[in-house]
Write a structure and sequence with these properties.
Elements: E1 7-10, E2 13-16, H1 25-81, E3 84-88, H2 101-115, E4 124-130, E5 136-145, H3 152-155, H4 161-170, E6 184-193
């Protein structure tokens, strides 16, 4: 196989191959599309749970649901697909979701892209990398924009005392506060073995 060092633009995604015997463009496109589909399902399920919880009992209730349901939804998709499906951020609420070095680079590039005027709602990135075991894996991230509602009730700069108390109880190391509408709150992240 050829040794690739080209950046391939496919839709709004950058796919980078950096070594011998990496996947074909068709496989990269298929993996990107399947990742987008899983993220769409993950986001849809999570948003539905959060909106329902907000309607039933406000932001404090939603925090309890997010604390339990978000990891369950991620685990369901991870087991169903045989991938690692998760969320991460530069300012995590749960330390277990801390970004690795690759994710940190992508999140920083998202911030740069946003600063240049790119639409956060359409921002994603995919790349074939070599993992610590020397095996190839497909990695994908999709930016999570901060919406006016319901995001700012629990991630904004002006939180109610009840929300602050619940956050302090559930997430003593929380750093995911102080966002404004339109900020990049984090990203959905996927690792697919190859």
């Amino acid at each position: 196989m050829k040794n690739f060092k080209n950046v391939l633009a496919l839709s709004a995604v950058l796919l980078v191959s950096t070594g011998p015997s990496f996947a074909s463009t068709d496989e990269l496109t298929a993996r990107t599309q399947s990742s987008r589909a899983v993220i769409k399902q993950f986001f849809g399920s999570l948003k539905g749970e959060l909106v329902g919880a907000l309607k039933a009992g406000g932001p404090v209730n939603a925090l309890g649901v997010c604390n339990v349901k978000a990891p369950e939804i991620a685990e369901y998709h991870s087991k169903t697909k045989g991938w690692d499906v998760a969320r991460t951020s530069l300012k995590v609420r749960n330390p277990a979701n801390a970004a690795d070095s690759w994710e940190t680079q992508v999140l920083n590039s998202f911030e740069d892209r946003k600063a240049k005027g790119e639409d956060v709602t359409k921002m994603d990135y995919a790349e074939i990398v070599q993992n610590a075991d020397g095996k190839k894996e497909f990695r994908y991230m999709k930016a999570i924009p901060t919406a006016q509602k319901p995001c700012l009730a629990c991630h904004g700069g002006k939180l109610s005392s009840e929300v602050v108390a619940k956050l302090d109880d559930l997430y003593p190391e929380d750093k995911a506060r102080g966002y404004k509408a339109g900020d990049i709150r984090g990203a959905f992240t996927i690792r697919q073995p190859m």
